[in-house]
Amino acid sequence: MESSGLLLYIGVAFTVGSLVMAAYWLLAHPADPVQTRLKEINPRFVDESTPQPVSTVIVERVAKPIVGLIPPSPRNVRRLRRRLMQAGYVGENASTIYRAIRLILALFFPAITFFTLTIVLRKPADISTLGLTMVAFCYGLFLPSFLLSRRISNRQNRITRALPDALDLMVVCVEAGLGLNAALHRVGREMEMVEPALAEELAITNREIRAGKPRDEALRNLGDRTGVDDVKSLVAMLVQTDRFGTSIADSLRVFADSMRTKRRQRVEELVAKAAIKLIFPLLLFIFPALLIVLMGPALIRIYELFGFMSQP
Predict the structure, then answer these.
(1) 182-204 burial: b if 16+ Cβ within 10 Å, else e
(2) Could you tell me which residues come within 8 angstroms of residue 92 by beta carbon, excluding any fewer than 6 positions away?
(3) Are 140 and 110 in contact (CB under 8 A)?
């Protein structure tokens, strides 16, 4: 009996471990180190024998028929693709997956809310129940848009903070004798550890130029993908410099100086705002605690004195 129980435990452990490993392999799909090294050496390398992760394929196959139920207008699709690119989602099916997630959440949240109120809490389906269901519907409809806006804002802030350092490095590369295309490639490689988002955008721009797209068009695409005003200013400066034939090194040096000055001014602005922002936590948390500590013994003494005086 003991040996059979031990074999049963071993079999269950082996089965559970196999299921966990199979789920990890299907969902995470660890990359081959050889293919990873080849991609590091040549970013344009694509291994056609490596299939897409199963999770990505499943999500794409489920999202397409769901989105097909409510076809959007082409204008909204273009605006959504621009927002997704600004958030870092440059995949072909990114807009389809986003619209499917938004539709599923808009139906899932009110269904869960209505089920909880009517079945679990035994509440009648009155106006308040329908109102809470509509609130859940609006929450599920606008939550993906809110999260996407937050991701766009965070990514743009990271690119803005890393842009002055990238410009300084680009000035050094251009003054050392590299062309603009080679400088973009070099800066993109050097900025991978500092800011991957900016490095990825520069790498995409460099690949577009290598593929034969005109430089001014590739640079304008860089400004559209990021949505950062400083990057758009840099793109306009580079396009005008290339068009009029002026020195790129001098233009980049002047622009880098202005970016450093602007970054210092932004930091000074944040420091000036910190004093105003500290008023609210002081009033809500620190001042009441100080009031209790300082005035507490005096208030207790006053209470005892008035109690003693009220006695006959």
Answers:
(1) ebbbbbbebbeeebebbbbbbbb
(2) none
(3) yes
- As a whole number of Å, the CA-based R_g of the chain is 30
d(CA 255, CA 249): 10
Q: What distance lies between CA 171 and its chain's CA centroid?
A: 29
Neighbours of 70 (CB within 10 A): 8
Closest CA to 251 of 309, 194, 301, 183: 183
- How many domains would you assign to the chain? 2
Q: Model confidence over 164-214: pLDDT tens digits?
A: 999 999 999 998 888 888 898 899 888 888 888 899 899 889 888 888 888
pLDDT in tens, 7-25: 666 766 677 777 766 666 6
The answer to whether the CB of 55 falls within 8 A of the CB of 27 is: yes
How far is Cα 188 from Cα 166, in angstroms, rounded to an integer?
A: 8
Residue 27 lies in a domain: no
CA triple 57-60-61, angle to 5 deg: 85
Read off the tokens for 5. 């129980």
Instruction: Assess whether pLDDT exceeds 60 at residue 30.
Output: no
My answer on whether 167 and 200 are in the same domain is yes
* Overall pTM surpassing 0.90 (yes/no): no
Q: 256: domain CATH number?
A: 1.20.81.30
3-class secondary-structure state, position 20: helix
Range of the structural domain that residue 291 is part of: 281-306
Residue 155 has pLDDT above 90, yes or no: yes
